[in-house]
C-alpha cells in the first residue's frame, strides 16, 4: 500500500484498523451511546467480575480489557453483559464445542491463508471496522466447515480486541460470488444456526451493517435460513447490493474499499493481512475459546 494512499486517507480523517487508543471523538461517543464514564467503567468491571466468580464450573479471562468488551457491547448494563458472556461460552464450550475446542494451530493457519476472511486496512468514517468475506476463496476440498467457522472467529475476535471496534462496531462485507452447491453441502442447518447466533447476540460486538454483494440464488437460499433466526433490528441493517457498487459506497466509503469493489485501496491482499493478524492474535484466540463451562 503506497504512502501516498495512506497520506491521502489520513488527510480525509480515516483511521487505520490497527488503532491502539480511543480518539477524543470515540471517548465522547462511548459516553453518549454506551453510558461509559470513568465511574461506570470502574464499578461495572467490579460487578461483572463478581458475577463471573459466582458462576459454577466456569472460567474465563477477568482482566479489565476483556470484561470491557462485554460491557461496551451491552452499554454498561452489567446483567446484560453477563448474559452475553454466558451465551458466548455456552455456544463455545457446550452447544458447539466440537467446532471450537479441537481446532489446532496449523488448521487455523491454513484457514487464514486462504484469504476467505480478513479486515480492511482502514475504518469507515464512524470508526467501525470493516470485516470482509470472500466465498470464492473457500475451496471445500481443502478446507472443512469447522475451520471456516474458526477463521470467522479469529478475524472477528481480533477486530473486537481493539477498543475502537468495541465503541464503534463492525460492518460486514460479504462477497457471495462463487458460492456453490459444495458450500451448501458443507454449511449444514446446524452451522447456519451457529452463524445466526454469532450475528444476533453471542459475541461482544455491535454489528452496524451487513452488506452482501454478488449474491447468487444458492447464497440467497443459505441466507434465508440464517435470516429466520435474526432479530428485526439486525434484519434492518442487512443490505443486498447485488453488483451495484455505487449503492455499496453509500454505506462503506469507496476510499477504503479495494479496487475490485470500485474503491481506491490499491494492492489489497487479504492473504497478507490475515497472516499478519494471525501471528499476533492467534494465541489469544485459543485462550478465549478454550475457556468456558466445564463438566463437574
TrEMBL record:
The lineage of its organism: Eukaryota, Metazoa, Ecdysozoa, Arthropoda, Chelicerata. Signal peptide: none annotated. It comes from Argiope bruennichi. One of its GO terms (molecular function) is phosphatidylinositol bisphosphate binding. One of its GO terms (cellular component) is membrane. Coiled coil: none annotated. The chain crosses the membrane at residues 209-230. Keywords: Membrane, Transmembrane, Transmembrane helix. It comes from the Eukaryota. Residues 104-269 form the CRAL-TRIO domain. InterPro entries: CRAL-TRIO_dom, CRAL-TRIO_dom_sf, CRAL/TRIO_N_dom, CRAL/TRIO_N_dom_sf. PROSITE patterns: CRAL_TRIO. This is Clavesin-1 like protein. It holds the Pfam family CRAL_TRIO_N.
Amino acid at each position: 500500500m503506497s504512502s501516498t494512499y495512506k497520506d491521502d486517507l489520513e488527510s480525509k480523517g480515516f483511521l487505520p484498523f490497527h488503532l491502539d487508543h480511543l480518539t477524543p471523538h470515540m471517548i465522547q461517543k462511548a459516553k453518549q451511546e454506551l453510558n461509559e464514564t470513568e465511574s461506570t467503567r470502574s464499578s461495572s468491571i467490579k460487578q461483572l467480575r463478581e458475577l463471573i466468580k459466582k458462576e459454577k464450573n466456569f472460567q474465563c479471562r477477568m482482566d479489565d480489557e476483556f470484561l470491557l468488551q462485554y460491557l461496551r457491547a451491552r452499554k454498561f448494563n452489567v446483567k446484560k453483559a453477563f448474559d452475553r458472556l454466558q451465551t458466548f461460552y455456552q455456544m463455545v464450550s457446550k452447544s458447539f464445542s466440537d467446532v471450537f475446542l479441537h481446532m489446532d494451530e496449523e488448521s487455523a493457519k491454513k484457514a487464514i491463508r486462504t484469504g476467505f476472511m480478513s479486515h480492511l486496512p482502514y475504518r469507515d468514517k464512524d470508526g467501525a471496522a470493516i470485516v470482509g468475506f470472500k466465498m470464492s476463496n473457500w475451496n471445500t476440498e481443502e478446507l472443512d466447515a469447522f475451520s471456516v467457522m474458526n477463521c470467522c472467529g479469529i478475524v472477528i475476535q481480533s477486530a473486537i480486541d481493539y477498543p475502537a471496534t468495541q465503541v464503534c462496531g463492525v460492518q460486514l462485507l460479504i462477497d457471495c460470488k462463487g458460492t456453490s452447491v459444495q458450500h451448501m453441502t458443507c454449511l449444514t442447518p446446524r452451522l447456519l444456526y451457529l452463524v445466526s447466533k454469532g450475528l444476533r447476540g453471542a459475541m461482544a460486538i455491535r454489528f452496524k451493517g451487513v452488506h452482501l454483494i454478488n449474491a447468487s440464488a444458492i447464497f440467497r437460499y443459505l441466507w434465508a435460513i440464517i435470516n429466520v433466526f435474526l432479530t428485526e433490528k439486525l434484519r434492518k441493517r442487512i443490505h443486498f447490493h447485488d453488483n451495484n457498487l455505487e449503492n455499496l459506497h453509500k454505506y462503506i466509503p469507496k476510499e477504503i474499499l479495494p479496487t475490485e469493489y470500485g474503491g481506491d485501496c490499491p494492492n489489497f491482499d487479504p492473504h497478507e493481512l490475515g497472516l499478519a493478524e494471525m501471528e499476533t492474535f492467534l494465541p489469544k484466540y485459543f485462550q478465549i475459546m478454550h475457556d468456558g463451562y466445564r463438566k463437574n
